[in-house]
Amino acid sequence: MSLAAIQMTSVDDVGANLDMAAALLRDATAQGARFAVLPENFAFMGRRDRDKLAIAEVDGHGPIQDRLAALARELDLWIIAGTVPIRVDGEERVWAACCVYDSDGVRVARYDKIHLYDIDVPNGGGERYRESASIAPGALQPVVVDTPVGRVGLSVCYDVRFPELYRALVADGAEILIVPAAFTVKTGEAHWDLLLRARAVENLCYVIAPGQCGVHPSGRGTYGHSAIVEPWGRIVSQAGTEPGVVLADRDASHQAELRQGFPALAHRRLQTAYPPSI
Ligand SMILES: O=C(O)CNC(=O)[C@H](CS)NC(=O)CCC(=O)C(=O)O
Questions:
Q1: Assuming Cys at both sites, which of 7, 20, 59, 131 could form a disulfide with 226, CB separation 3.0 to 4.6 Å?
Q2: How many other C-beta atoms can be found within 10 angstroms of the C-beta atom of residue 237?
Q3: Where is 14: in which H helix or E strand?
Q4: Distance from Cα 159 to the centre of ligand 1, integer Å
Q5: Looking at residues 200-218, what average pLDDT do you find?
Q6: Residue whose CA lies nearest to ligand 1 atom number 20
Q7: DSSP symbols for 217-267
Q8: Mind listing the GO molecular function terms for this protein (predicted)?
Q9: Measured between alpha carbons, how far is 97 from 112 in angstroms, rounded to an integer?
């Protein structure tokens, strides 16, 4: 059981969230995980969007990033830290940075969420998000990173609705797609499993998608149902609505045989919609 997705109910107390993340990462390691993914906003979910500015960190250091590096080393575990709020110079906004730590605690990759959730939730009873008010969009540069469990492509939450990002990741050789999330309950019920399975099937990739669950200090609920999906679209492991850990193995030879025997990726004809620089 080498891959883990960690589901959390994060609150507006960084220390408490880091302690909860540490306990769940320890639990995952005890069950055999070598590679664990934390959800979006795992270190902080405030009462108001702008509350995250107060706990945002400079790139590379701070209580959140230092604790992640220490945990990776201590547990001998690769950790993908859903999103960490990183300060943007000269702006009252942060980047939602997905940070990858190797098992020596070295940060080996960073991807900043590109697609921001500026949405009035349909039939959401007034539930409304303006993520771009507090978050700056990341550079239009897909990020892949080689790890002991395979080549990993990074994304965050709302990105999952933009398949062209994943096409670009697969063009760069991704075998595992990461989708840390804090999905709304309404859109989660309608689309969460569907979107994760679609990204897995169309790219013949594993998908690891840890989510937030429960009710947060803002009063909002999140959908939970963290999942690990295999490249044929089967959900191999899934959480419910409580915090916890879901685990699965990657069968690399199954994936390679699938890609060979069902060569849809080799049949691609069209370019992605991203600029040619990507
Ligand atoms: O702020 C919160 O309380 C929780 N949400 C988040 O942190 C983020 C940014 S607002 N959520 C999403 O991107 C949800 C996407 C989504 O739900 C969809 O694509 O339908």
A1: 7
A2: 19
A3: helix 14-30
A4: 10
A5: 98
A6: 187
A7: TTS-EEE---EEE-TTS-EEEE--SSSEEEEE---HHHHHHHHHHS-TGGG
A8: hydrolase activity, acting on carbon-nitrogen (but not peptide) bonds, in linear amides
A9: 4
Task: Answer whether 0.95 is exceeded by the pTM.
Answer: yes
Establish whether 98 is a catalytic residue.
no
Grouping H, G, I as helix, E, B as strand and the rest as coil, residue 32 is: coil
* Contact call for residues 248 and 239 (beta carbons, < 8 A): no
Ligand 1 lining (C-beta closer than 6 Å): 40-41, 45, 117, 129, 131, 157-158, 161, 182-184, 187, 216, 218, 220, 222
Torsion of CA 48, 246, 101, 98, to 10 degrees: -40
Q: Name the average pLDDT for the chain.
A: 96
DSSP 34: S
Instruction: Report the pLDDT value the prediction gives residue 270, as an integer from 0 to 100.
Output: 86
The ipTM of this complex is: 0.91
Could you tell me which of 34, 9, 1 has the C-alpha nearest to residue 216? 9
What are the chain's domains?
2-267 (3.60.110.10)
